[in-house]
Amino acid sequence: xxxxxxxxxxxxxxxxxxxxxxxxxxxxxxxxxxxxxxxxxxxxxxxxxxxxxxxxxxxxxxxxxxxxxxxxxxxxxxxxxxxxxxxxxxxxxxxxxxxxxxxxxxxxxxxxxxxxxxxxxxxxxxxxxxxxxxxxxxxxxxxxxxxxxxxxxxxxxxxxxxxxxxxxxxxxxxxxxxxxxxxxxxxxxxxxxxxxxxxxxxxxxxxxxxxxxxxxxxxxxxxxxxxxxxxxxxxxxxxxxxxxxxxxxxxxxxxxxxxxxxxxxxxxxxxxxxxxxxxxxxxxxxxxxxxxxxxxxxxxxxxxxxxxxxxxxxxxxxxxxxxxxxxxxxxxxxxxxxxxxxxxxxxxxxxxxxxxxxxxxxxxxxxxxxxxxxxxxxxxxxxxxxxxxxxxxxxxxxxxxxxxxxxxxxxxxxxxxxxxxxxxxxxxxxxxxxxxxxxxxxxxxxxxxxxxxxxxxxxxxxxxxxxxxxxxxxxxxxxxxxxxxxxxxxxxxxxxxxxxxxxxxxxxxxxxxxxxxxxxxxxxxxxxxxxxxxxxxxxxxxxxxxxxxxxxxxxxxxxxxxxxxxxxxxxxxxxxxxxxxxxxxxxxxxxxxxxxxxxxxxxxxxxxxxxxxxxxxxxxxxxxxxxxxxxxxxxxxxxxxxxxxxxxxxxxxxxxxxxxxxxxxxxxxxxxxxxxxxxxxxxxxxxxxxxxxxxxxxxxxxxxxxxxxxxxxxxxxxxxxxxxxxxxxxxxxxxxxxxxxxxxxxxxxxxxxxxxxxxxxxxxxxxxxxxxxxxxxxxxxxxxxxxxxxxxxxxxxxxxxxxxxxxxxxxxxxxxxxxxxxxxxxxxxxxxxxxxxxxxxxxxxxxxxxxxxxxxxxxxxxxxxxxxxxxxxxxxxxxxxxxxxxxxxxxxxxxxxxxxxxxxxxxxxxxxxxxxxxxxxxxxxxxxxxxxxxxxxxxxxxxxxxxxxxxxxxxxxxxxxxxxxxxxxxxxxxxxxxxxxxxxxxxxxxxxxxxxxxxxxxxxxxxxxxxxxxxxxxxxxxxxxxxxxxxxxxxxxxxxxxxxxxxxxxxxxxxxxxxxxxxxxxxxxxxxxxxxxxxxxxxxxxxxxxxxxxxxxxxxxxxxxxxxxxxxxxxxxxxxxxxxxxxxxxxxxxxxxxxxxxxxxxxxxxxxxxxxxxxxxxxxxxxxxxxxxxxxxxxxxxxxxxxxxxxxxxxxxxxxxxxxxxxxxxxxxxxxxxxxxxxxxxxxxxxxxxxxxxxxxxxxxxxxxxxxxxxxxxxxxxxxxxxxxxxxxxxxxxxxxxxxxxxxxxxxxxxxxxxxxxxxxxxxxxxxxxxxxxxxxxxxxxxxxxxxxxxxxxxxxxxxxxxxxxxxxxxxxxxxxxxxxxxxxxxxxxxxxxxxxxxxxxxxxxxxxxxxxxxxxxxxxxxxxxxxxxxxxxxxxxxxxxxxxxxxxxxxxxxxxxxxxxxxxxxxxxxxxxxxxxxxxxxxx
Length: 1469
Fold this sequence. Notes:
Layout (H helix, E strand, L loop, with lengths): L25 H20 L2 H4 L11 H13 L12 H13 L5 H16 L10 H13 L2 E3 L3 H20 L8 H17 L5 H19 L11 H4 L29 E3 L34 H12 L4 H13 L3 H4 L9 H22 L7 H18 L5 H18 L4 H15 L8 H15 L4 H10 L7 H13 L8 H21 L30 H27 L1 H10 L9 H10 L5 H9 L3 H12 L8 H9 L8 H18 L7 H19 L9 H7 L11 H13 L17 H11 L15 H22 L3 H20 L3 H14 L11 H7 L1 H17 L6 H14 L48 H9 L12 H17 L1 H6 L6 H21 L3 H20 L4 H18 L5 H17 L7 H7 L1 H4 L3 H22 L6 H14 L6 H12 L10 H13 L7 H12 L1 H14 L3 H22 L5 H16 L8 H25 L8 H18 L1 H5 L4 H17 L1 E2 L2 E2 L1 H20 L11 H15 L3 H5 L4 H17 L4 H9 L7
Antiparallel strand pairs: 1-2, 3-4
C-alpha cells in the first residue's frame, strides 16, 4: 500500500482561484511572488499605521515593509538559476514575519497567509530543495504562532480559515516528509484549537475547521503503511515518554468555548518553539495534543531518556506522532468520565458533538492506517484497550448518530485488525449489538434500526459469520455469538401482530446475506463430503485443548468441531447439574468430560468455564465444608488471572462467577481462597495474604454498608481508613490506595448475588480488565477463507429459524422485490442443504414453499387458473418449488409428497405439460413440439399398440386458453377481458418455467434414496386417492400417479431392483382389489406388461422376477379379464416376439405359456395368443428344454379349443406338436457332440417326448373328426419319427400302456357309447388307430421282442385287435374294420414270422407264445394260421434257416423287406 496521493491545496476554502500548476519558467515564478509582495504591501498601505512615509533621519520604513521590498529587488535576479537551488527561507521569511507580527491587523495577516499558501501550492518546495527542512519548520512555527489584531469577527474568521489552509498545505506538500514529530503534533494541536474555538464563530468556519482536521488525520495516517516497521525507533516509538493530557471539556462548553481574548483585543496562536502547545494566556479548555519536548511538563527519568526523546522529536515524523494523535483522539471519548455520566445518562445534545467529531477522526485514521496498525504495538494497544472500551461505552448512547459511527469503526476494525481483537469483538456484539437489539433493555426503535443495519453490514462480509462461529461459538470460554446473531436476525424478521416493516426487511437481508455467503463458498470446492460426527473416546482435560496450527485448515477444522462438541456437552451437563449437582457430574463423567475419578481441578474448571450454571449451586458447592469441596475451592481460584488488577476489581470479577454463600464460615473459606490467589499474583502493596483477606472482608462490609437501604448511618471515608489501620503486616496501607478503594465501592456496588446467565451482560470495568487480561492468552484468531469448512454445522444451527423467518416474510410481503429476495434465500438454502446432505432441512424448505403455491389450498375461487395467474407470490413459489425439485432432488425425501400434491393440483386444472408422464424412450412417440397443455397421451396410451378403454379426457392449458378465446361473441359477459388473457398467459409462462416433466424424465439421475422416496410418495398419494372414494376425480388421480410411477420405473431400468418391490406391490394391490373394469386396473395391467417388455433385454438377472409378476394377470377378476384379455394377449404376444431370446428360465416360460394358454378359451384373444405360440414353436429356434413341455401343453390346449368353430387352428397346433420332435432329436445329438452327461440329458428328452405323446393322446379323443384324425396322425409321426432320440425299451412299453392302448380303448368306448352327432365318423378314427398300432409295433418289434414282458405286450395288442374286430358301432360291425383288422394282423404275423419272433416249436419258450398267439388269432380269423404257416415242411425248414440267419446277423432279407413293403407293413430298424 503506497502513500495516499492527495491534491495540493484545499480548493474548497480558497478565496481566489489561482493557477497552481508548476512551471519551470523562473520568470513566471518571479512574477507570481512579486504579485504576492505587491498584494501584501497594498493592504498594509490601507492602514494608517503603514500608510505615511517620512524620509527624515528619525523615521524610516518599518522593517516588515523593508524586507518585502528587498525581496522584490532580489527575485528577478534569480532568473538564470533554478528555484530549487534557492534557499526557500529567503522568499518565505518576509511573509512569515508579517504573519508573526502582533502589529498587523487581520486583513494584512490574511493576505500574507494567502501568499504563503500560494507559494506552497506552486510545488516549488520538494525534498530536493535546498534547506527545505528549515523552511518547512519556519512555516509551521510562524503559522502556529500567528499573531494579529482583531478588528471584526469576519476578518478574524477569515484569518483562521487561512491558517487552516496553510497548515493543511504543509502536510500535503511534497516536502512534508521533512517535518518532524513535534511539528506534526503542533499542526494538529493548532487545528484542533481552531476547531474548538469555532464553536462560537460562524457556521462556515466550523465546517472548514472540522474538514481540515479530518484531512490532516487522513494525510498523516495515510503515511503509516509506508513506514518501515522493522528495526526503526520511529516505527515502534520506543523510548518516548509521551504523556498526552486529557481533554477537560466542561459539559456546557462542548466545542463552543470562550472567544480568543488576551485582554487587549488581539488574538494569538503563540507558543515557544521548544514547546508544543498553546500559549498559556489563551483561554482554551482543551489540553495540547502532546508535550514532546516540554521538560517542564514531562518529567524525564534520566538525561539518557531525555536525549532519546529529543532525538525522536527531531526525526522526520512517523509512528510516535501518530501514537500521540491517536491517543489524543481516544482521550476525547473519555469526556463522560469527567462529567460523571453513566452509560445512558448523557443527553443527546451534549453526547453527540464531541464524540461524533472524535469518532469520525478515529474512523479516518483506521481506514487509512488499516492493517498496518497491528504492526505497531503502541497503536494496537490503544485500539485494544482504550479505544474499544470507549466504543463499548458510546455504543450504548441514546444518539443514533454516535451508534452508527461506532458500528462503522468496529466494522473497519474487524476488516483490518480482527486477528488482534477476538475478545473485543465478542464483547461488542454481546454487550452492545445484542443488548440494543432487544426491546427489554429499553433501546429505542432508532437504536434498534441502526444496530440492525450495522449487523447486516457485518453479515455481508463473506467470512464474518464463519469466523464468529469458529472463534467464539467453538470456544468454551466465549459466548455463542454466531448463534445469538442468527437467532436475532430470525426473530427480527418475524412480523408479530404487525405489518411488515423496514426492520423486518433489514433483518431478512442480513439472514439472506449469511445464507448466500454459505452458498457461494460451496462453489469454491469439489462436492462437499459429509463430515464425520465427533466422539470423545477417552477423557482429556477440555480446558487444555490446543490446536497445532491455527492457520492450517487441516488442523483447526477438526479442532474447533471437537471443541464445539465439548461445549454442547458441557451445556447439557450444566442443565443436569442445575437439576441435581451429583447427577450432573456423573453425566459429565459418562461423556468423558470429567475423569472417572473426580479431581478438584477438573471440577473447578467445569465451574469456571461452563456457561449457564446455577450460581447459587456453585456458591454452595465451593463454600461446602466437605473435603472434596474444600479442595475444589483453591483450584477454582487458580483459574483467575488477577495480575495488574486493583483489589476491588479482582474481587468483583471473582464474585461474579457464583453467589457468595450467606454463612460466615463459607464466606471466610471463599475469601481465603481469593486472598491467597490475589496476593500470589499482585504482591506490590500488600505485605501478605492475611492483609489481602482482611482488606477483602473490609470491602465486603463497606459494600453492605453503602448499598443496603436498611443501614441508615453510612461509613465515611475516614471510618474506612481507620478500620483498616495496621492490617498490612502491622503497617498502614497507603491512604490514597484505601481512598480509591472506598470511592470505587461507593460508586459501584459489588453484587454478591450476581445475575444469572439469561440475557446479555453489561460490560463493567472489572469485566473489561478481565477481558484485556484474557486477550493476552486467548487462542489465536482463526481466519476463514472462501471454503465451507464449518458451514454444515453452522447451517444446521440456523436453518430452522431461517426457513421460518423467510417464510413469514414471504407470507406477509406485498412487493415483488421482497418476493424475489425471499426466493433467492430459499434457493440458497436449498443449495446448501443439498451440498451438505441435510435432507430434513430441504424437506422442511419444500413443505414451507408448497404452502405458498396456493395449489394445496382447497379451491375457494371460481376460476383458480385466473387467480393463480394474478397471484405473483404463488407463481414465484411454484417456480421455486419445481426448480428446487429439479436441481436438488437428490436430497428430497418426505418433501416429494408435497411436490406431488402440487403436481396433482396442476393436473386437475389441466395445466401440466404433455411429457410429464412419459419416459425417456417415448421421445419418438411424443411430438417433438414441446407445447404445454395439449391433450396428452399417458405413458401407456402413448404407444398405439395398447388400446385403451375410454378414460376421462384431460384438457390442457392451451385447450382452456382456446376455449377462453372462442367464447360466444354474442354474449358480452362471456368475452375474456384483457386482464383474464394476461392472467392465462402468465400462468402458461409459469408452468413452462417449472419444467415439471424433467422431474420424472430425468429421475434416472436421482440418488437412490431420493428416487425410492419419490416412488413411495407416488404410491402413498395414489393409495390416498383410492381409499378416499371412487369418484371420477379420485380415480383419475390414482391413474395419473400410476402413470408417473411407471414412467420413473422405466426411466430407471438400471436401478429397477431398487424400485421393483414397491412398484410390484402397488400394482398387485390394484389388480387384486379391483372387481370391475376401470381405467386404474387397465393402467396397472398394461403398465406391468410394458415394464416387463422394456426391461427384459436389460435385466437378465431380474427376468424371472419380472415374468413372475405377470402372474398377476392370471389373478384378475373374471369380469376384468374379459374386458381386457384381447389387448393383454396382444401385449404378451409382442413381449414374446421382442424378448423371447431373453426368457431362459422354466419359471418365466411357465408364466408366458400360462398367459397364452388362457387365451385358447377366449374368442377375442385366441388369435393373438396362438400367433405368439406359433412364433415360439414354428421353427424350433425358440424352443428349449426349459419351455418345451410348457409350449407342448399350451399347443394341446389350443388344439382342444373349439373357440371360433374353426378346426384349422387346432390342426395347426397339432402340427406344431408333431414338428417339435425334431427339436428333441437335435438336442439329443447336440448333447452327444458336446460330451455332456448323456444319461441325464437322455432322461430329460424321454420325459419331454412322453409329455408330447401324452398330450397328443388327449387330443385324439376330440369330438371333431378332423382334429381327432389329425391328432392320431400326429401321434403316429411322433411315435415313428424318433430317429436320433435314444428311447429306452421300458419307455416304449410305458408308451404302449399309457398312450397307444389307452387311445385304442378310449376311442372304442367313445364309438360305442356316443352318437354320430357327438362324435361323427368314429369308424374312420378307429381304422387310423389300428393302423397306428400296427405301424408302431412292427417298427419296434425287434427291440421289444427281446424284453421279458414282450409276451404281455403282444397279448395286449392281440386283445385290442380282437376287440376292434368284434366291435359294434351303433349296433353293427364296421365293414372297414372287418376288412382291415385281419389284413393288419396277417401282415404283423408275417413280419413276426419272418423275423423269427414267432416260430413253431421254438426252443426259447416260443411254444408258449405260439400257443397264446393262435389262441387269440383263431378267435379273430381262424384261417390266418394256415395262411401264415402252411403244412409244407420245406417252407418250415426254410423258415428255420432264415430264423437262424436273422438271429445271427440281426437283419431281414431283402425279399422279406420287399414283401413287407409291398403289403404296406413298415419294417423295423
